[in-house]
Amino acid sequence: MSSRARNEENGSATVAVLLATYNGAENIEEQLSSIASQTCPPNLILVSDDGSTDRTKDLVAQFFASNPQINGKLVEGPCMGAARNFMSLLNMVPDWIDAAMFSDQDDVWLETKIESGTKALSDSGDPNIPTLYCGRTWVCDEKLESRKISQLRKNPCFRHALVQNIAGGNTMMINRAAITLLKAAAAETQKVVMHDWWVYQLISGVGGQIIYDPNPHLLYRQHSSNIIGANNGLSARLKRLRNMLNGRFRYWNTLNIKALKNSAHRLTAENQKILVAFEKYRDANLILRLAMLQRTGLRRQGLEGRMALILAALLRRL
To answer: What is the pLDDT of residue 66?
Structure first.
């Protein structure tokens, strides 16, 4: 009996893992093994490789061949960066899948990650409401040692999502309603900063549910090739400050605003107004910029985050 048939028989959710790869040969087998060893194994693993020049594709193919019980598929990615690779994976999710999870190539999942996510989505209420489950991680070194828990985040919402991302893609699970929403929105935009920030903004923007799990369910490996990396520690805080001062934060906001405008008809009426005000007044004079922050309720988490947002407004770096 296939994994899909078993899920249909016992009424449990069918889950797809969306794994984007690029030159990840060093860690990909360990990550695939952790996914396959879940207490609730996925019904489908979709791997999109973005033009790797190492043995990544061979290792993925060998893993699927050696584990015939796994429903796995390896495809060629769009070769347009990690965000577009993940968004292309979304479009490949078949209709019989109830929930999808994003996966990085170099993490290790704890064995109850899928089980915890599916239970959270099941307990969340109306399945017709787009719902995002995400949470904390164990931040580790390259050998998965020196573990430190990531920061606890609270009260996720669109006012927060516009100016800060707390939803790490490697922790995400989305329900069928969210998959449908994101597939349609992906066709409306060409460029986003990162797929996870876009997902958080869009699902919160349409009035969907955001579930933030305070318990970590994966080992988040830190190394020199991390595209984003964890936000813990002094070096991460200094990097965020540099990103604000050198205009990168402003550039990210510009990209995010453009992407959200393309899908603005999907946002709630209130969130459409917030988006319009943010775009209009971030370039206004100082008094209007500060007034916009107060009026819209835009916020970042923590004292440091709040101060950084005010500083960005003062320096015209929003």
So the answer is: 96
Are 63 and 29 in contact by the 8 Å Cβ rule? The answer is yes
Quick check: 218 and 149 in contact, CB under 8 A? no
Examine the pLDDT at 1 and tell me if it is beyond 50: no
Q: Which residues pair with 19 in a beta bridge?
A: 47, 103
CA-wise closest residue to 202 among 192, 216, 217, 190: 192
Quote the Cα angle for 6-9-11, to 5°: 100
Whole-angstrom distance between the N-terminal and C-terminal Cα of the chain? 54
Residue 87 CB partners (closer than 8 Å, separation 6+): 182, 186, 192, 195
pTM, 2 dp: 0.92
d(CA 34, CA 108): 6
Residues 6+ apart with CB under 8 A from 109: 31, 34, 35, 38, 103, 217, 218, 219
Query: Cα separation of 139 and 228, whole Å?
Result: 13
Say which residue, 30 or 236, is predicted with more confidence.
30
Burial-class residue 91 by CB neighbours within 10 Å (0-12, 13-18, 19+): exposed
Alpha carbons 137 and 57: distance in angstroms, whole number: 27
CB 199 within 8 A of CB 169: yes
Rounded distance, CA 267 to CA 288, Å? 24
Encoding tokens for residue 82? 């990690």
The one-letter code for the residue type at 22 is Y
Report phi then psi at 160, rounded to 5: -85, -45
